[in-house]
Amino acid sequence: MNEAARKPFGRFVPLIVFAALVAFFVVGLVWNQTHDARFVPSPLIDKPAPTFRLPRLEQPTQFVTKADLLGKPYLLNVFASWCFACGDEHPTLMAYRDKFGIPLIGYDYKDAPQDARAWLQRHGDPYHEVITDQSGDTAINFGVYGAPETYLIDAKGVIRYKHIGPLTPEVIAKDLEPKIRALDGAGT
Amino acid sequence: MNPELGQVALILALLLSGLQCVLPIIGAWHGSRPLMATARSLAIGQFVFVALAFGILMWSFWINDFSVAYVAQNSNLSLPWFYKLSAVWGAHEGSLLLWMLILNLWTVALVVLGGKLPEAFFSRVIGVLGFVAFGFLLYMITTSNPFLRLFPVPPNGADLNPVLQDPGLVFHPPTLYMGYVGFSVAFAFAIASLLGGELKSTWVRWARPWTNIAWGFLTLGIVAGSAWAYYELGWGGWWFWDPVENASFMPWLIGAALIHAQAITDKRDGLRAWTLLLSIFGFAFSLLGTFLVRSGLLTSVHAFAFAPARGLFILVYLAVVVGGSLLLYALRAPKVTGGKSFALASRETLMVIGNLMLTVACAMVLLGTLYPLVGEALNIGRISVGPPYFGPLFLLLMTPLVLALPFGPLSRWGKADLKVWRNALIRIVALAVVAGIIAFIVGAHGWYQLLGVTAATWVMAGVALFAIKRWREAPRGKRYPFEMLGMMLAHFGIGVFIAGAILTRSMSVEQDVSMRPGASVDVGAYDFHFNGVTETQGPNYRAQQGTVVITRNGKQIVTLHPQKRTYSGGQVQTEAAIEAGVFRDLYVSLGDAIGDGAWSLRVYDKPFVRWIWGGGVFMMLGGFVVVLDKRFRLKRAVEPETVRVKPVPESPRKLAEGEA
After folding, report:
1. Do A147 and B304 touch (CB under 8 A)?
2. Is the pTM of this model over 0.90?
3. CB atoms closer than 10 angstroms to residue B25
4. Largest CB tally within 10 Å, which of B116, B322, B478, B512?
5. Range of the domain at B152
């Protein structure tokens, strides 16, 4: 008995799945090139950042909490040594770390501390401070999809902006820097 | 020699490949022997011209012809000669040319060895390979020409990427490509069967050695790549789940599944549809791997913006090859699939479970690898998922496979035999528990270490039981045919690999330290004594070279010299120094000068790390040894064609007696 003959449509399944995949990519690429990239706003924007208590990368016995960082705005950059897109983003961070005007805090995501240290040693350390989240539990509260992601958090601990994917000079000039300047204007 | 000659050779090869794709297939369609007869000469002619182009490019590297842009970008006057020659495949354009050359080598091998296949089927196979070659050559000539000239001619080249200046590069890409391209044979067989509307299990048998050789080479390529990363990246890691590794791992997983599916189709005449689909997908993933790695598309869709023609061509080509194959499958499957069914507790069932696990694992890897692209396409940002995603999921999928692995060879074809399973289960559990207890007594106290020992024993016990069973049941001389020997080697290799991967992870001691000359650090049972850093000079780099003396219990074991090289292009590259051993590696990697004469160093004691690659080598040997089996050598002959689907007559060539 012929299995394919019994189920006349079963044999079309691989083709249909493949065609759907191709269509998905083509539509995605065309859409990206014809539409301005506007991210779906995160539900956490303009909401207080979740509270956290995470160890520092260099001194794992010391913890940094959300309260410690209140009082002045900062950028929280989610990265990991295993994340290759972070490698793409890294030179940009090195170039802009002192131009942001506010501290850049590294958030080492689901990563072995020794790997993160070696990664920073190898490529250079753009961060003013690095905190580690080995389990990724706190990252869930932040709504982290993966690495890299960047959060702008103001002096009151409110998330003002979120960027998913690597920061590029264009993104910084177009989106991030205006948001940082807006913080100054608001007198925070 | 003139690079334009290379260009002309490529164009001639393109024309020949176009003919090779069309003429033999039309010939097979109409039963025209003269047209079918062109297959051989066209394939050989194409090989000659591609080899000529390859030779000319290599010559351009040899004589430092920097007027060729590709040479200027990837070579340098002070580059050692062996890197000059291997720089031919050091970047995108040249690696495509290498790919083409290897495809031609496989095709010519098929032409030489395939004489006993029915002529119509053989013509279709060569025609399909011609189509593959046509796409590649067109892609090269239109978007990735390695012979483009550069004016004004630079006095010196930009140098080969230092990461690639390693003996690993000399043979890593060629072995990997041997694997990738090798799957084109199984693919061509599948498409030829679908085109002809007929699939014979004897053809699948004939395709099996090719798949095994391809998979063996792919295994070797992956092992070489993994060892290379271990040496060159200065991390001491051996697998990173990065897109480049995944690109080679996906066809490997499908290839492993295909090897087993083909065996079932060959021996039991079952799983035909599955074998056809795996043949198509194995090659599709090879194409994906080839294109995506060197074209830079995997790291970002932005590569499309830099070279839109390349990106578009790749998408269209993949869509045509895979989509066309699947369409053909959908239309023709009723004619060629089917086959015998089997009982639930049979060997086939276990092999199907293994197949499913491997295929799902491949889909999982594909999703994770393309995740940044998916994210970008959906406009949610390009993010990596990395080891936190791959690690647990892969473990989850491979656990049932490893648990079922020993029982496959021990069960019977077609029929359920629960008693065999029960007896095997008792023995395997007993052996694994005994091994665990011995490991505990010897000093393995962590649960993770014990898991490694028992899991490895679980797999190896299956191989041992199978060996004993064959010894008892089969007559002398027929106990271990090469096919079984290969299977045993490969399965044993999986056991070795499991031991290596888990024990390295659980027993490694690693430290990042900053040391002044004269300082020491204890790592495990070893004492690492740092004797400072001196400057040395290589052919095209300057290096800071550390000296580290390793002692154990006051007895000197070895002196290591890790380097930090600065290449003429200004790139910095670490060269870890490694004292390699069967049971442990001692690994030192030099970091940065911290000041006051102090340096940062990474030092490791890595037990059993060699077993990871040792396991891979066993698997590779398994793939190769199977090919020696008499089953493939003597019974290559194919029965005369009986059922004809097309009404047009084909010319059966009865070269040998058919088999039952």
Report:
1. no
2. no
3. 25
4. B322
5. 1-160
